[in-house]
Structure prediction request, 600 residues.
Amino acid sequence: MPEYKVPVRDMKFVREEVLDFPALWQRLPGCAEVTAELAGDIYAAVAKLCEEVVAPLWRSGDEEGCTWTPTGVRTPAGFREAYASYVEGGWPALTGPVEYGGQGLPPSLESVLNEFVGSANWAWSMYPFLAKGGRLTVTAHADADLKAQYLPKLISGEWTATMCLTEAHAGTDLGLLRTKAEPASDGSYRINGTKIFISSGEHDLVDNIVHIVLARLPDAPPGTKGISLFLVPKRLPDADGNAGAANGVSCGAIEHKMGIHGNATAVIHFENATGFLLGEPNRGLNARFTFMNIARIGTAVQGVAHAELALQGAVRYARERLQMRALTGPANPAGAADPIIVHPDVRRMLLNIKSFAEGTRLLIQTLAYEVDRAYLAPTVEERQQAEDLLALLTPIAKGFCTEVGFEAASLGIQVFGGHGYIREWGMEQNLRDARIGMIYEGTNGIQAIDLLGRKVLASGGKALAPWLEQLAAFCRDSAHEPGMAEFVAPLAELVAEWERVTREIGARTLRNPDDMGGAAFDYLMYSGYVSLAYLWARAARTAQRALAAGSGERDFYQAKLQTAAFYFRKILPRTRVHVAGIASGADTLMDMPAGAFLLD
Prediction:
């Protein structure tokens, strides 16, 4: 089983040296007292919780899993105690609004907490993390009374939350959902219907769960324009604000899944359950994006988490496992064989994993930077700029990070050879847990269509332009900096190509709309590889400057340069395949009759 060590040093490199969060906080209202030292104290405290409390439950939680009973779901041994420690440490309140009991720290710190705790135990982490999406949804869309009633409990961690979207017959097509909401005389609603695949939908960590539910009003128009959003608690608050009488909410079953066994994926029945409208009637899809966008970034973090676990487990094993001799002669002449880390193909796998783990961390923290700007920037214009950039980068991050995170988890098994396939080493669990990331919060195919169709092409390319300009500006600024030519020259070419490829897809889509759908996934992956190239180039520039200044951490910065070079030379050429796929059009996908896929 891999022993997870929180990568505090690398997180500081990303946030303090490459992205410079401390400088950002100094100009954001209310953040002047948030320093690198304070952030470092937070990282250290989270690391202690993860390494000593949460990570030790990773394998045992997988083996025991959750247990359904008629009175509720029992989580694996130790989960309740770990959650109590999490609440006692004040972690649910880290970035919550002060007026409801939160600590009011910058929202980007949630991304650090999410990665560290998620890497320690992704199944466990989902219980508190979904509550954050619920909290943000209530903050954005509830009336004052609902906020006063529910936010203090969600922020303290006394209650958790879920997102109830999916129904068995509908899946991603929410326009087909059937759950109903009937108005009651007291201004509330009676919710009836069944939702499936509800992560953290029922458990024993807290005494109340707040469900955020999509449902239809009686006079709602058909399709997606007739959906409203409701707050439906498992238990209705009593006069003192505590969990009181049972509402009409029950768990019919929990799913038997490939991975994340420690998290209860529930079937939830609503039977005349009392609910409360969030936002405007028939505008539920708009309101639910508050939750969904946070969940998509959180899912992108899952890709980082599984890549990091694969990296730590694989590197430790490769250093210790003795097998064969180095091609250039014995590296361990006193032993019977050399450690496998000397072999080029093992290095290939390890550097793939490392470039993805550390590169996607850079991408997530870039989004986190924009989250701070979107919430806290002093002008409306800057907040809008940040929101626009987040709208573009969120589907890239969700899709790309989960794809390469799964690839890293698979390579983690491969480094171990046959031992990687055996449960006791933990690599196969990491792969099983990682697989869901490409599916939930909108499959990666949906993310690709969102990126290319709804964001880039629908805006006539305007949504993409600020990101391309940021990349181009970096190339101009770094063109003559020592040691940067090998990164800047190919990146500048890719920026121009990205713009050209986008125009070509747009022109073809006008003639055949299927061309957009056929190109979308290749376009998403291309966007991810180029975006990571930009961030690795930024990391390389930071490392170059540190080395030139005589840093005492020479090995750390040299490893950053070497990993960046590996990414550009060995990984970035994958963009050629995606460009070819984009150019191939939709005919090769759509010409075959549906009946020809499987002939009896």
